[in-house]
Amino acid sequence: QLNDTSSVVFPRSALKVTQTLQSGLIWRIDADVSTKRAHGGDSAAVLREAYLSYRDGPLDVKVGLQNILWGRADVLNPTDNLTPRRFTWLSMTDAEQRVGSPALQVGYELGFGKVNIVALPVFRPSVIPLGDTGGLSVREIRPDDTKRDFALKFERQEPELEWSVSWLHGHSLRPNITPAANITTSATLELRYPKVDVIGAD
Q: How many CB atoms lie within 10 A of CB 16?
């Protein structure tokens, strides 16, 4: 954790299970458990993924908590805007900061490419290293109109080129930070997650 109360070095264990239940049906769990005893902190468990997957020919369906890689680019991906991150975690790679979002994902192979549709009924934002400190307080205001958030993508893989185009109709995972209005007793920042429509290609 990037704060002044947790130790930098602490024990950590990971659980990753993928099991085929029957033909085409798979379930997966990915979780981390860490212990921060150096400063008297409590253990922390994080469920990254827990979903059920079904594949039948060109059809691929996933439901549950998913880490959705959106786009085809590696490392720096401009259209990777469906999966939240915990920027307070010290990690070797960006992938270790990812946590899943509750979603229904449907993919279909067309022969000349693949179409993906994702429904995001529950909003799960990224976590940034900003909290109450000194005379400053932070108030997070999450959107309450996320049941209709969705994303569409068409992607194609060729021997020498991979590309995709996508559209997200939803909310930003990273907040806009503004001073709170009508509060005079202390300095307060508000974290709001605006509604966005993002069209991307990579």
A: 11
Closest CA to 45 of 57, 58, 55, 36: 36
Mean pLDDT of all residues in the chain? 82
C-alpha triplet 166, 16, 99: angle, nearest 5°: 40
Residue 69, strand partner residues: none
Is the whole model's pTM more than 0.70, yes or no? yes
Any bridge partners for residue 60, and if so which?
55, 107
- Pairing verdict, β 187-192 and 136-141: parallel
Laid out side by side, the sheet with 114-119 consists of 12-22, 25-34, 44-56, 59-66, 101-109, 114-119, 150-158, 161-171, 195-201
